[in-house]
């Protein structure tokens, strides 16, 4: 009997962005289909792993959460080490979080090389009534910097899986 060959794919993906944009909830929605209204519960969790299938291959996405480090403006280099994908998140209802994206991109570029698959994520798209960043603004920033772009809601699940899956597929295409 022929021996089957198994390839293993483990992709480290980091989630970055200002405090309270919804990073931890995007992760818990993706990994466990859960949402925390008071969000304290996920503090201390380093990463969660979720298996995704791409082209019939099982891929383990190891998604890292800052666990609140970003409040001190000091996400450590260990956080970025080995990352092959990144979600850079802002809150569509708070312009200041969008204005911080450049700084997060600089930080990402300092720690990781340019081959990292990068997705700009405008989270909380359920808050249309108090939108402060237009879809066009998000799109054009993403185009300028060569990022993918998507708007999500961790609250009602809009595009959360898609955000991660597009990044995972891009990483897969780069390595296979
Ligand atoms: P983090 O600091 O970036 O990890 O943000 P959290 O995931 O802790 O979320 C911060 C706050 O925003 C919490 O009160 C969440 O309940 C809320 N939140 C997160 N995602 C969404 C979303 O998609 N829509 C809305 N309306 N609120 C959200
Ligand atoms: Mg958090």
Automatic annotation (TrEMBL):
It is a lipid-anchor. It is found in: Cell membrane. The keyword Cytoplasm does not apply. One of its GO terms (molecular function) is GTPase activity. GO terms for cellular component: plasma membrane. The keyword GTP-binding applies. Keywords: GTP-binding, Lipoprotein, Membrane, Nucleotide-binding, Prenylation. Its main location: membrane. Belongs to the small GTPase superfamily. Rab family. This is Ras-related protein RABA5b. The lineage of its organism: Eukaryota, Viridiplantae, Streptophyta, Embryophyta, Tracheophyta.
